[in-house]
């Protein structure tokens, strides 16, 4: 497999993210069955592409950087499996917001 | 959860708003049942993104600022829950108007 | 309610208009039943937005001003109720024409 | 009624035209029943808008002027009644051609 | 009728053409029934518009001139009857090619 | 017929190509029935247009030249019969690749 | 056949890739039946086009080069058979990412 042990560098304005682990228990300590777990829309930015290219071929840098915690839209994104771990690729423009660090 | 206790900074030209509380009573003091309460289209601007990026990568500032009272379109917007409170993300261009302060 | 007693400032290239009152009687003085009243397509401009923003963030002023009498398209526009009065928001580019003052 | 006795100034690149009267008789003098009258696609230009606005807000003048006789497309246009007379608004770009004066 | 005895000047990037007469006989001299006659896609350019206008209002001249023999696409074009003769209006960009003169 | 004995000059960014003859036999010499013959996607460039025109009316030259062997997309193109021979018109941007000469 | 023994040079911003061979055995050495083999989304870049042309006719170079290992989207791409080997053409902008070399 090409990707074994190698980092994936997103192309253009794509952002590689890893969603946070869902909360397994309520605040009161009660186990949350998988089905009831809300879809996690917050994620960690793992890697970013150079940015989209404009009419002149200049690259427009993206608006987030590796390490940022971001809020993803409910839908969209491309699932990517790297060494059996689940990542997602989103376009820079589709990421809703950044959690203040 | 990533967002606990942290502010959400909208990205690009997105605007984070919180709708006003619906009127619970008519002017005559009669309770308005929830179903009959008109959908609140006025809201407070909580946070704004840096603005959309143009072909040169320059950011075009948005047309509203935190603290503005605005009129929202009837549809659209992305619901965002932060610490169990309900917020909405709208694009700058979709907000209909500002109430004179 | 946020809007009580406050003016609404349209955003971008939106135009706030108030339709003229329909004619209640024919020229011959006969009452016109509500159903038969033609939809009023003429209106007064109440307030205008700063204009649309172009690629450089510059604002392109709109083509009408408060006080103009304008001809509206048959369809479109967003109904807005302010202090129980009915207004409409149209995009500058959708307004068909101005009646010579 | 707003328009009574006042001229309509088209906005943007709109052109106000009045269609020519249909031929009521064949060349041989035979009356043509209304149903058989071909839809008149030629019209007189009554008034023209300032033109469409480009990215810089500059107005691009239209390609016809009041008094021109023009050929209209078979479909399209917005019907406008002014003092019980029938006019049409077309976009400058939709008018097919000008009859040589 | 507006057009009687007057030339039609196409507007923008429109091209006025007249299709060639279909071949009535095969090379062997056999009459071709109307139904079997292939749709004539070659035509003579009669008149051309000034050209499309760009963002600055400059006119971009068209790529053919009156007198050229051109190859039309199988579909499209607007039929125009002038003094009982059949013409077609095509956009400059839709004309497939020119026959070498 | 207009085209008799005359070359067709494609307009804009169109490319006139002639597909290669299909292989009639397998490598082992067995006749391939017409139905089984793969659709030929390689072709010879016969003539090229001046290129598409940009906003300023400047012509953007195409990326292939007469004599090139090219790879066509499986679908698309406009069939053109010239003196009973079959040619195709493709847009420059739709041609997939060039075979190294 | 035109392509025999000749390289294909992709046109515009197209990228010619060859997918990696699928894993035939699990890590534990068990044969994976063809049906169960995941669609290989990693591939080697074989050849790249000059890049897309912008409004001025300038070529915008692509973001990958021959020899790169890339991650393809799950769908899309044009299958191309060259000397009985299977290749794919993708647009530069559709390639998701590069595996760090």
Description:
Chains A, B, C, D, E, F, G: Pfam families: Cpn10. Chains A, B, C, D, E, F, G: Belongs to the GroES chaperonin family. Chains A, B, C, D, E, F, G: This is 10 kDa heat shock protein, mitochondrial. Seven copies of one chain form a homoheptamer. The first copy, chain A, is mainly beta. Chain A contains no helices and nine strands. Chain A is elongated. The A-B interface holds A 20, 23, 42-43, 51, 54-55, 58, 60-61, 63-64, 69-71, 73-74, 93, 95-101 and B 1-3, 6-12, 14, 16, 49-50, 53, 55-57, 78, 80, 89. Strand 9 of chain C pairs antiparallel with strand 1 of chain D, so a sheet runs across the interface.
CATH-defined superfamily of chain A: GroES chaperonin
Proportion of helical residues of chain A: under 10%
How many structural domains are formed by the residues of chain A?
1
Q: CATH architecture of chain A, please? A: Roll
How far do the termini of chain A sit from each other?
36 Å
In CATH, what is the class of chain A?
Mainly Beta
Strand percent estimate of chain A: 35-45%
CATH topology label of chain A: 10 Kd Chaperonin, Protein Cpn10, Chain O
What are the low-pLDDT stretches of chain A, counting only 5+ consecutive residues below 50? none
Radius of gyration of chain A: 16 Å
Largest sheet of chain A, described in full?
6 strands, antiparallel
**Strand tally of chain A:** 9
The run of helices and strands of chain A is EEEEEEEEE
- Strands in their spatial order, largest beta sheet of chain A: 7-8-2-3-6-9
The rough form of chain A would be described as elongated
Q: Total number of helical segments of chain A?
A: 0
């Amino acid at each position: 497999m090409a990707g074994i042990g190698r980092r994936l560098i997103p192309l253009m304005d794509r952002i590689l993210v890893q969603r946070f682990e869902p909360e397994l228990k309520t605040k009161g300590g009660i186990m949350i069955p998988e089905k009831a777990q809300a879809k996690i829309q917050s994620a960690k930015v793992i890697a970013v592409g150079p940015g989209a290219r404009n009419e002149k071929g200049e690259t427009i840098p993206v608006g987030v950087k590796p390490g940022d915690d971001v809020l993803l839209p409910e839908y969209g994104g491309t699932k990517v499996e790297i060494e059996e771990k689940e990542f997602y690729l989103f376009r820079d423009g589709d990421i809703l917001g950044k959690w203040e660090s």
